[in-house]
């Protein structure tokens, strides 16, 4: 489930840079100081604002960690390449891929981080077969899926798509199929290209070779504009520390400099500044009193409780957690919960992701036990593209090593699966082999806790209207 691309305009950044420079001149450095507003607030008020900032900022801080791993940290194992370039991975993901949780393993990925501060970026898509599903998911720093390029939205005929940052207001250039606007200067782009079977990999490589990302000036054959100022990147927090360390608020302040204030959030962003979360300025928690530091931590705990409560209420359905700003209606708890369930998941019209964490009796899934999942004849998931079910360990939510190197079962594999006497399919979910005669239908599980993520790409109306529901995982008899 995973993501990044970004478009932005140099007209916007100097405003932010001027503000930061003025603040720096006033304070003597770029670090925020305990403001008069924060000093005047009671601990309970600080705790409330910290809770709001934690919930609002969780997706942004997590997106920054992913973006940093993919496009900034050249020494890291997850580095994909510099901004405004594309990396095609002509393979499926394995347990060695750990940059983000719940990665899929049935569509070879293409990754790009977009920096739109200097000028827009053009994404070129080559033509491909009508029956091959592909999608380029465009996520801003908020983690909103603000638009799509792909089989469902733009078709398989190919084209040139301009991704523009929040300050760009130019006319549509010649040869551009569509102009797509981002709210933030940085964008995470995740491309997925369907792989029919192992023998199809060379075809996927040819398609990926036709994907291209370039600045608008290069697309038009014009001189490049003045480059955007260099960024002094800060090191992201480890995933666990994001939930407990007040350094979280410093990370949020850093990321907010790339996200101009949305009018609907002006009051919220002003409250953040009251406790020292100022875009582009260092949030130095050590400068605050012990009582304020305790209130900040308590706010984080409160925010995580709200996220945990939302996750517990999902009953295996996560399709309400991902989408555009318009779809989510500024439900910040939903956006934060979606980040922790699986950052970078698609919007429901593009894909549905039921998460199976418990068996039919309500017990958590455990690799020490044996389970089955049955699709009755004629009742496979109704999709326009394809479906899959992928195994992840818990709580890490990463792919699971196993003797078959099999991390999922999907619809392209149906010809290789054994059918039941009634014409349906039974999937065996357990740690050890169910026996040679059943291994074709075996989805290997870890020894400990696990979950199974269903993926329904380009779902049909029956799925979107909940007229067809995922079968439950049954304890083996």
TrEMBL record:
Superkingdom: Bacteria
Annotated DUF1214 domain residues: 350-460
Statement: the UniProt record of this protein carries the keyword Transferase: no
Gene3D superfamilies: Domain of unknown function DUF1214, C-terminal domain, Domain of unknown function DUF1254, VPA0735-like domain
Extent of the signal sequence: 1-25
Keywords: Signal
Boundaries of every DUF1254 domain copy: 83-215
Entry keyword Magnesium: no
Name this protein carries in UniProt: Cell envelope protein
Organism encoding this protein: Paraburkholderia gardini
């Amino acid at each position: 489930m995973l993501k990044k691309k970004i478009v932005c305009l140099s007209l916007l950044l100097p405003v932010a840079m001027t503000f930061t420079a003025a603040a720096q001149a006033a304070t003597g450095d770029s670090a925020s100081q305990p403001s008069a507003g924060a000093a005047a607030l009671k601990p309970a008020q600080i705790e409330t604002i910290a809770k709001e900032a934690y919930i609002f900022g969780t997706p942004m801080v997590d997106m920054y960690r992913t973006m940093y791993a993919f496009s900034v940290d050249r020494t890291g194992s997850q580095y994909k390449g510099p901004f405004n370039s594309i990396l095609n991975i002509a393979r499926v993901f394995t347990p060695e891929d750990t940059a983000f949780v719940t990665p899929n393993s049935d569509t070879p990925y293409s990754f790009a981080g977009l920096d739109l501060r200097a000028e827009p970026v053009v994404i070129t898509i080559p033509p491909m077969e009508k029956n091959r599903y592909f999608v380029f998911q465009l996520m801003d720093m908020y983690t909103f899926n603000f638009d799509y390029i792909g089989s469902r939205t733009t078709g398989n005929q190919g084209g040139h798509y301009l991704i523009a940052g929040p300050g760009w207001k130019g006319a549509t250039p010649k040869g551009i199929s569509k102009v797509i606007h981002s709210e933030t200067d940085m964008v995470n782009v995740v491309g997925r290209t369907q792989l029919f079977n192992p023998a199809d990999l060379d075809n996927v490589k040819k398609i990926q070779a036709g994907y291209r990302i370039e600045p608008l000036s290069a697309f038009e054959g014009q001189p490049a504009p003045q480059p955007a100022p260099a960024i002094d990147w800060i090191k992201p927090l480890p995933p666990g520390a994001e939930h407990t360390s007040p350094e979280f608020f410093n990370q949020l302040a850093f990321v907010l400099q790339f996200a101009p204030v949305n009018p609907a959030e002006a009051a919220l962003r002003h409250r953040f500044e009251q406790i020292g979360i100022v875009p582009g300025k260092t949030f130095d928690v050590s400068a605050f009193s012990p009582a304020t530091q305790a209130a900040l931590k308590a706010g984080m705990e409160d925010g995580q409780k709200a996220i945990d409560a939302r996750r517990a209420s999902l009953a295996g359905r996560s399709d309400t957690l991902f989408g555009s700003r318009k779809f989510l209606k500024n439900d910040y708890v939903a956006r934060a919960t979606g980040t922790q369930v699986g950052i970078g998941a698609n919007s429901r019209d593009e894909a549905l992701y039921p998460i199976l964490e418990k068996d039919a009796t309500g017990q958590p899934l455990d690799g020490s036990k044996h389970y089955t999942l049955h699709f009755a004849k004629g009742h496979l998931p109704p999709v326009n593209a394809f479906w899959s079910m992928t195994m992840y360990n818990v709580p890490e939510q990463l792919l699971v090593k196993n003797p078959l190197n099999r991390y999922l079962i999907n619809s392209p594999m149906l010809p290789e699966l054994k059918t039941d006497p009634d014409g349906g399919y039974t999937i065996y979910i357990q740690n050890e082999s169910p026996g040679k005669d059943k291994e074709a239908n075996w989805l290997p599980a870890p020894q400990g806790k696990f979950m199974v993520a269903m993926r329904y790409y380009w779902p049909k109306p029956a799925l979107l209207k909940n007229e067809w529901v995922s079968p439950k995982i049954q304890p083996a008899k």
